[in-house]
Amino acid sequence: MTKEITAEILKNMPENEYMVIDIRDESAFEYGHIKNSVNIPQKDIFSAELPKDKKIIICCKNGIISREVAERLCEKEFDAYNLTGGYVEWLGIKMKDRNITEDVEKSLRKKFKKSIWCRFTKAINEYKLINPDDKIAVCISGGKDSMLMAKLFQELKRHDKFPFEVKFLVMNPGYSPENLDIIKKNAESMSIPINIFESNIFESVFNIEKNPCYICARMRRGYLYNKAKELGCNKIALGHHFDDVIETILMGMLYGGQVQTMMPKLHSTNFEGMELIRPLYLIRESDIKHWRDYNDLHFIQCACRFTENCTTCEPDGRSVSKRLEIKNLIAELKKINPQVEKNIFRSVENVNLNTIIAYKDNNGIHNFLDKYDFEE
Description:
Elements: E1 4-5, H1 7-11, E2 18-22, H2 26-31, E3 38-39, E4 55-59, H3 65-75, E5 80-83, H4 86-94, H5 101-109, H6 113-126, E6 135-139, H7 144-159, E7 165-172, H8 177-189, E8 194-198, H9 201-205, H10 212-230, E9 235-237, H11 242-256, E10 265-267, E11 275-277, H12 285-294, H13 322-336, H14 340-347, E12 358-361, E13 364-367, H15 369-372
Parallel strand pairs: 1-5, 2-3, 2-4, 4-5, 6-7, 6-9, 7-8, 9-11
Antiparallel strand pairs: 10-11, 12-13
Helix pairs in contact: 4-8, 11-13
């Protein structure tokens, strides 16, 4: 029989008596984890050197996969316990009755003024993301990026340099009650007045085998546009950051055979008069993580129903997605050239059409041979 331990009991245990091992993949662990826990993915746990003089607490997302792992470790004579409810339950307890609004806002005005606030305002000014009298739906998924974006918009409103309105929009596509509760608690603890609306997207894509995440993302954006327009908004704001942009550039080149980027703003093709803006466009993910950890904030990586019983956020069980492969590639390149991220970004700002074999636009494909003989 598996030995269980609750997050409440763990909270009151002396730290020298136990070791928390998080068996989720590296990406999920990096997104958020229990303080002082160690990340040993499930595939490596049984070959790892583990202490026999401490209680070993096994943690996964919901306490399901970890139960079997703890049981097998007990069979190997380790004093192993399953963390009941996993990281999600621990997170819910940690966030209970918490109010950190003042500290979070102070950090944006002082410690992160240069790395986050100034880059936020630079993107707004450089790409003309906000105009007077705009009404913007700030779309919150519940992760670190969208929650930071919400706080930045609140700060921008306080400056009151020009009139605009914001609505903080949370779509519930079918989250479990525990995951939705974490989103609500994070918003409440930071004084973000969210507007939650329901959809049945998870139900719609649950039985789709090919590219369910792509279809889900497309459907979610459509629902967000529709709700935003219903609320009288003319723009939706998404929380994509600088790293998302450069990763998209490389993914297009290496996996898609094309040069393209994630634009700072777009006109909607299906919702007339609506625009999509990305105000975190110039903010580094490392700075967002620093802000998160500095304020002791915790978020769930993925609240998708596909991953309820998984240790990873990938619906097909793979521990490494193509985006993570690109992220790791950039990290390796950065060791050789610290400017590699800036150079990738600048590459799509400095395109010389005279040295391009072919390019395409709304009028079709243009080849360098089309005007080659006329330029002799």
